Amino acid sequence: MHLGRLNHVGVATPSITDAIPYWRDVMGATGIGEPFDLPAQGVKVCFVDTPNTQIELIEPLGPESPIAAFLQKNPAGGQHHLCYEVPDIAEAKAWFEEQGARLLGEPRIGAHGTPIFFVHPRDMGGVLTEIMESPRGGH
Question: Where does the VOC domain lie (predicted)?
């Protein structure tokens, strides 16, 4: 099993609305999607296109959101996770489990509409890592 393309960098923010001007006006991003709620994961999401990947802005939908806990420790927000693509989520899950990695929950549908799971930071060099099945028909 090999990790594929870096799909996105997840950046937690207390407010997507307040973060968008930074990405648009300071960073010069022109491909900023519309924010949308992802209730199954307790977050609001907005993708910012860059030439070689995406930034996923993530805001908690409520106090039970895992992003709310992250923001309690990092009130200004910051990098939350990296996301890599794999061709087959079931194969990737089995491989990570064989390596002894701790998975955070079972595969579920993520913000791109494809299956995802997370690998515990302690097993990934200190970085929370999302593994995502590559979208059908490209990126």
Answer: 5-134
